[in-house]
Every structure is written in structure tokens, then in C-alpha cells.
Amino acid sequence: MSFPASPEDTGRTPIPPVRRKGRVNRRVIPGFGLTMGFTLTYLTLLVLIPLAAVFLRSAGLGWEDFWKAVTARQAVHSYKVTFGVSALAALTNAIFGFIVAWALTRYRFYGRRLIDALVDLPFALPTAVAGIALTALYAQNGWIGQFFHQPAEGVERSAFVTWVGQFLWPLGIKTAFSLTGIYIALTFIGLPFVVRTLQPVLEDFDHEVEEAGASLGAGRLRVFLTVIIPSLIPSILTGFSLAFARAIGEYGSVIFISGNRPLDTEITPLVIVKALEDHNYPRATAVAVVMLLASFLLLLIVNVLQRWAESIGQARN
Known about the structure:
By secondary structure, the chain is an all-alpha fold. The protein has helices at 7-10, 32-59, 63-70, 73-106, 112-119, 121-124, 127-138, 159-168, 179-204, 207-215, 220-248, 254-258, 268-277, 281-316.
């Protein structure tokens, strides 16, 4: 009968048992009280106090004066322009931003990195510069605007512009200094939000799911509509919400191309600026409160959509 050799017999040291820690210390910066205190102080000084000041200043109006300020004819029309055009621009970015993100993640082609870098241009470009550039392009005599605006009497156009213009001039489409100009500017500044939201999701998408659908006899279109799109809906809605939130607060690029006509092309941020210039601070803060509440609502929607996207990703994994 043989017996197992002891560690003393084999000359090997016994392997110590693995000890599992009940709690893992994940702190890198020591001192929870210090870091949390700094965080709360930083957010309070930069975010909470300024926002609270807006609410407190508007509260001094009284409910009747506050309601009169936020429901004035000029203010209501600016809400319609700002939220309506912003929603349309965000919807456009949700569609075409998805196409851009799809092309950048699914295909490898010459100049891909350049196009990928150009997507971030609205992030880096000052909004005033973007507004001036867009106005120069889409004005009546601009490189693009001249195709949409019939020239005044005595003004000559090139043969190519005249040939294209004979199809576009009768449509009466106005570009700069109109609602179309606002739409162009808001689409320009909102595109990166959709693309950058969708890109990591498309890159991490499991291609085996597509292959499984194809192996079951589904065509490319059916796999795209029933497998890919449902998984991307939370990310698309998140990109839409971010682009929409960015658009409703845009000021610099819009004031140059909109024309700023009251009850026509005037946006809500411009109404606030005009009230401040007239030293009508109560009216400015009252309208600002409306914009703040809309922003808080959008942030809530974005957080809900992000949690929805995480839950879908965990379920897929």
C-alpha cells in the first residue's frame, strides 16, 4: 500500500490557500471625504449656485408677471422656432449621422481618417466662425446660395449657375436669413453628437448575430431591420436627444444666418440676450428658466435612454 508523499518528503513547499477578500478596495485617490467634499464644492460653485440664481431671480417676479413674460407673443414664437427647427435638425442628424457612422465603422476606404476627423470639426470650430462661414456660403451671392436665389436685375450669373438655377429658382427656397438658414446651422453643429454616440456601439456590435440571422435564411435587409436597427434604437435616440439639447441652446452660429427678425426668425437665446441688453433682467431670467427646464427634461430623457441601452447590451451579452 502506498501513501501520498508529504511536502517534507518531496521537498516542495505547500501552496498557501487562496484567501478571498470580502471587500475590494477600489480607491485610487485616498480619502473619500476629501474627494467628495471637493466634488460637491466644485459642482456647487460652477453649476448649482448659478442655476439657483436664475430661479431665485425669476421668482422675484411673482407668478403673474412670470407667466406674462414667458407667454409673451415674441417669446412664444421664439419657442416655436427654437424647438421646432432644433427637432427637425436633430431628426436629420439621427438619419444621416447613422449613415456616416455606419460608413466609418463598416468600411475601410481611402480618406476614412480624414472624414472621421472632419466629423469633430463642429466641436472645435468657434460657433461665430461657423455662423460667418455658413452665411457666406448660403447668402444670396454665396457659392451655394446663388443656386437658390434668382439674381437681381442687372446681376449676371455664370452659365452653370444659370443652368442649375432654372430648376431651383422657381421653387423659391430661401437659404440664409430664413428658417432654412437656422436649420442648416443647427444641423451642422449637431452632427457629431449622433455620429460619436453610434460609432462605439457599431464597432462593438457582435457580427455573429448577423451571421446567425443570415444562416437562418434571412436576407440582408431583413437582418438589418430586425437585428441591427432594434439594437441601435437606444443609441440613435440618445444621439437625437443630445443633438436636440445642443441645438436649443445654440446662439453664435445662428444669429449670423437667421436674420434675427422678431416673430419670424428670432430664436429664444436671442430673446434672452435682447432682454439683457435692455436691462430687463427679470424677463431674461424668466425666459431662461423655460430653457433650463427644457434642458433638465432632455437630460433626464438621455439618462433613461442610456440605462435602456445598457440593459439591452447586458441582455445581449
